[in-house]
Amino acid sequence: MKANRPANLRPGTLAALALAALLPVACAQTGASTDTGSPRLEILDDEWQLAGFENSLDLSGIAAASKTHVLVGSDEMFHVQPGVVDFAKQRIESKRPIALPIESTGKKQEVDIEGVAFSPDDNAYYVVGSHGLGKKKGDFQPDRHSIYQVPVDPATGVVKRDGIRRASLLPWLEKTPRVEPHLKQPLQQNGLNIEGLTWSGGKLWFGLRAPNQDGRGLVLELAPGQLFDGGKPAPMKVHEIAISKGRGIREIAAVKDGFIVLTGNASAEASKKIPVTAAPGPDTRFELLHWNGRDSNARNLGRLPENGGKGEALLVLDDTDSHIEMLVIFDGLPGGEPMSVRIHR
Fold first, then answer.
1. How many helical (H) and strand (E) elements, i.e. helices and strands, does the chain have?
2. Which residues belong to the signal peptide in this entry (predicted)?
3. Are 74 and 50 in contact (CB under 8 A)?
4. Degrees (nearest 5) of the Cα angle 32, 331, 199?
5. Taking Cα atoms as reference points, which of 49, 13, 3 lies closest to residue 336?
6. How far is CA 293 from CA 55, 146, 310, in A?
């Protein structure tokens, strides 16, 4: 399986060299696994900033096409926002938003963007909506059931504003027996909801917040060509990850030896329209796991410190034989308040 190198902000070794010179030494270690030989999780004192992004309290997905160009999504918009990375300043600066094609015409227009990935094979980002019902009202909104291909200039990593294509995973989900019963069901009651997306080995990997099936989180695998090049809908490949009951996948990021998975509550909090929820408690515990992408076993790398936000997106900065460095972006905090972490292999 090929690792998702471009989404690590380094198609080659340039970003690794830049980070080695620019990223400061880690400070306090936290959440380390007690398993012998397990990777260790450290929280770094780097103060990265996502600057100038609209709806900055609701940033929900990020991926990189090169060491300097990223694309950011917000779950309250139908736009995506390109960004430019400055390693020296530890800053990602927003550029002009790009509208995605949508169906709705009312006052409330959103795709509920939950994941962004970059494919070097296609020179394109992929941006996915939750494919779930509205969290508060449990209503079906067509634009949430969208996935977009957003092309980039292979020489520069800059988004090509023309040529954005739209599809939906719904026909494939309807043919996948493991998840079909959970379609169009409320998230409070284990209804299907996509929250993570990454690219690896020529495939898109979708992390599901829900359903959680008896302590198993689900990852769905599909080649992008099946969606955008006239493929006939067929069952998606389903992977299981042991994450315990009540937990869901909130983001997934490919690395050289598998995937880093961010987990939180599988179910949403109750609402007036949906007063009963399977959520075990407040959505305040977020953990990082390492999953090899083959079997259901996952190593718990550690729990992230609580900061008042909800763990929402991952951006891999560096991926070496000795460690992984990444940013964790939080929903509900200004500019996502990126948390810089290092995972020691």
1. 3, 22
2. 1-28
3. no
4. 70
5. 49
6. 33, 25, 25
Q: For residues 341 and 298, what is the distance between their CA atoms, to the nearest angstrom? A: 19
pTM above 0.85, yes or no: yes
Tens digit of each residue's pLDDT (9 = 90 or more) over 65-100: 999 999 999 998 999 999 999 999 999 999 999 999
Give the number of other CB atoms < 10 A from CB of residue 36. 5
Burial class (CB in 10 A: 0-12, 13-18, 19+), 33: middle
- Report the distance separating Cα 103 and Cα 101, nearest Å: 7
**Residue type for position 336:** G
Contact status, residue 302 vs residue 32, Cβ threshold 8 Å = yes
CATH number of the domain at 6-100+109-344, out of 2.60.120, 3.10.450, 2.120.10, 1.10.287?
Answer: 2.120.10
